[in-house]
Amino acid sequence: MIWILYSLVVIVLLLLPSHTSAQAIRFQPQGAAAAGQGNAFAAQADDASAIHFNPAGLTQVEGVQSIVGTNLTGGSVTYNSPAGRDARGDFGGSIASPPPSHFYLSANLGALGASTFSPVTLGLGLTSPFGTNIRYPLDGPFNTAVTTAALPLIDIKPTVAYKLNDQLAIGVSADIYTFASFLGQGHGEQKQVGAGVFGIPPGASVEFNGNGTGAGATVSLLYTPLRNGDGKPIASVGLVYRTQAVVPLNGSLLINGAKVADASTNLVLPQIYTGAIAIWPVRTSEREWKLELDVEYVGWKSNRDLDIHLSSGGVIPQPQQWTTMPVIAIGTEHKWLNPVWLPHWDVALRSGYTHTENPVPDMTFNPAAISISSNTLSVGAGFLCKGQGRFLGMVPCGGTSALWPKAIGLDVAFQEWFYAPRTVTGNLNPTVDGTYHASVHLGTFSLKFMF
Questions:
Q1: 441, 413 in Cβ contact below 8 A?
Q2: Architecture of domain 2-450
Q3: Average pLDDT of 323-352?
Q4: What pTM, to 2 d.p., does this model score?
């Protein structure tokens, strides 16, 4: 309980999302073990981060497990206009701060003494799978489109998983998307400079802000047709469906810092279909090697507009017209179990690749949600200390007390996102037209406690 409470304190301090991605406002890395494999994890899903990647995978997690982690994100967006006016944006600094983070807690009911319910595992996740935080110069060439934008959206995920038999497990979680007053401003906001339309004076400082709560769900299946002599999977199939969710944003329209009207819009988060397959060509008591392929279809076409409705009766149109796009991820993990060169430890090396397409058409592209096709390369490592081992050479990794973990793990990952240059033409706001280059690098860290 001491480690769990410590994890909760850390996650409260770190959870504010501050990131960008090729998929506009979606942020895929939600755990270092998965991030090191290019986020290809839905068929493996064998730690508490299964709450996000495949809830059915929680049935593989024994006892009580807690994971707490964060992402250190850096990079920039550069813009070159046809007229030679250039601009550079960033994510709030050289390293986005506070960083997007994740927390998971799972418990098998059998391990808690309810042997009748041993097929059931409960979980709770706190993640930031959608959000943005970006800023551009106030006098930039497209300042009538955006100068800063922030969406500190969090996802609260109560989860239950049930093991039907040795081959099949199912899982379901709620997705409660909301804001918190202690995270950033406690709302989403976008700022820009008035262009002299919709009754807003040219050159005025314009801000729309709003918050609210929306709900969706995730349902999943894990099918394991083949196991080795120790009962461990050597082939698994994961199927995951995340429903669409609508988050109402109710707030204010401010002109030069003064509220002029109540304002509202609806943020539509996409439904996502995921299919994944993992195989272990090698899985013995000494060594494991896994390969996995995940394919997703992200239903961005449901994001048709973000029109702002004012209490005065006016409407500020913000068409979106995004399109559904696939995401392909390939990952591998090679693990040494209690090797002679490092007794009482398991060591894993990971790598992966992710290809992401751009869902935003030129006509409605907005630099507030930068969206450029990308190829992501990932590497990572995992270290699990158990038994007589000592974490960081000082902390005992195993103990007889129920309040002390049986094992402590550290997972790390690094991702480099390679973006193709994007040239925007025919935008509804002509100042946005031009060529965009993006550079993003990401370090992910997760601490794991197993009880």
A1: no
A2: Beta Barrel (2.40)
A3: 95
A4: 0.91
